[in-house]
Amino acid sequence: MTAETTVRLTVGQAVVRFLTAQRSERDGIEHRLFAGCAGIFGHGNVAGLGQALLEAELQEAKRPEAERRQADRRGAGFGGSGLRYYQARNEQAMVHTAAGFARMRNRLSMWACASSIGPGATNMVTGAALATINRLPVLLLPGDVFATRPASPVLQELEYPGALDVSVNDAFRPVSAFFDRIWRPEQLPSALLAATRVLTDPAQTGAVTLALPQDVQAEAWDWPADLFAERVWHIPRPVPETVALIRAVQLIRAGSRPLIVAGGGVIYSEACDELRFLAEAAGIPVAETQAGKGSLRYDHPLALGAIGSTGTAAANQMARQADVVIGVGTRYSDFTTASRTVFGHPKVRFVNINVAAPDAVKLAGCPVVADAQVALRDLERALGSWSTSDAYRREARRLAAAWDDAVGRSYALGHQPLPAQSEVIGAVNAAAEPTDVVVSAAGSMPGDLHKLWRTRDPKGYHVEYGYSCMGYEIAGGLGVKLADPDREVFVLVGDGSYLMMATELVTALQEHIKITVVLVDNHGFASIGALSETVGAQRFGTSYRYRDPATGRLDGDVLPLDLAANAESLGVRVLRAATITEFADALAEARGWTGGPVLVRIETDPTVPAPDSQAWWDVPVAEVSELESTRRARAEYESAKTAQRPYLAPPESL
User: Fold this and answer.
1) The model's pTM
2) What is the DSSP letter of 385?
């Protein structure tokens, strides 16, 4: 190559320049593919990626301020040579922020996350698992040990006696959709292209890991200039095979009680209108998974709400009698199927529309491997004038209305002396505008939100329940806000999750990012406490209490934790509420706050359940025990287990 066709850069500089030049495109609309890079620097990346991001930032600073502000606002500015750097406080948290960002952008834009070697790298493994399970694109750039091995073992290097090419970064392999380690600069171009291909593939996407040895990051190379040319990655909309569509139509027409289960693929594909058109034309009611909640407005006549273990009584009752289930963009997790008990019809069959072939064949379904938007549009046309009966439509409306009445009652329980969690959800729902976003992830809150939150916008509900990772909430909420700054973001987090990871409140403060954190304080792990009772374990180890010297057990007084004071010490604006009335007033005050993150703290009674979903979740109970509570729970478990079904019948046997 001649000098004119090459560019001499370090590996770190080449990575940053490549990421800056990438675009995604779907339906003719382009997006900046990598909208930012979160990072924490250490000796394993400060001289490589750290130095490269500094150069990029200094170049970006030379752009006119108005141009930079416009690019910052939507993360879509194409000019300049910079990749915006965000300073994180915890490596796991920054991956959660990136996942929240990617989900909010429907996987069309994403972040990179850079760490040092050793613990900084392995801190990202949990975030990688979350991203891959939820099919969310995140590029991970962990530092790695020296490729040249001049003085092994180096600081934070794992010495694995079975092989010298193994490091702690190999832990990323099972939780990454793609993994590579760049031992030599020459390997980088092919690795970058392969990584970006996976990140932009709707069927394969997830965490992508490129491990970068610390010496290689700083090594210079003469790169082909074409590597850094602007590159547009087309996001495809695969169309359904004609034969697959015909089989799906035959199955649907052969039934009389069809049910649509809308998963996250509906929202990522931006297929909510097509879903509604099909539901209305064919009279098919719609139930929603956690990721699919918001696919249909809660008050639509055919909207049954959440399905499964955390579902509504309306959706689950219709599911028990459905003879054809049309899954759209769903993984059919155990919560969605109520551990394979909710679909009770003896001859139920499944039609599965999914861009990922492994999901399309689940539950022995008739697979339609295609983009949700295209497939729903084609399915509506192929069904023609076929429709369910007027009586079936009325049944769906009646059950949905009855459930909505139950939701209203749960919002206004007036429980004393402490409010119920459902009342907190009701107050936040009343305070939220239709396009505002509620964010949650773990504990009892996601289940209650799934069945109780009245969703009015496809992007208004953001609950991470693929990995249900405690600590996701605040970090993920930051990513949501960065992805769409014009929306108000309400992060609902329990005290257990808050204690695990509240670090990114500082990042929000630093970036002047307004999120409203609702801290629900119930002095322990409320969700597992309730589950513990159902398995006969008597809420053991789920309350925050002193160890009693007399008994030797954790059953003393409640720990005097003041998590609101903790948030206040981090520079967060804090509001405290003792009643639902005070809480509503605090939410109104928080909406008017513009000085960065704000936290509203309220204490709740963890023993008050939300309305019953009339569904089961398979959590095994000890088969033998000296405790009567456990023996009773085992008997109930064995009874419930009899309803579990394998769903193995081929679809053509209907």
Assistant:
1) 0.96
2) T
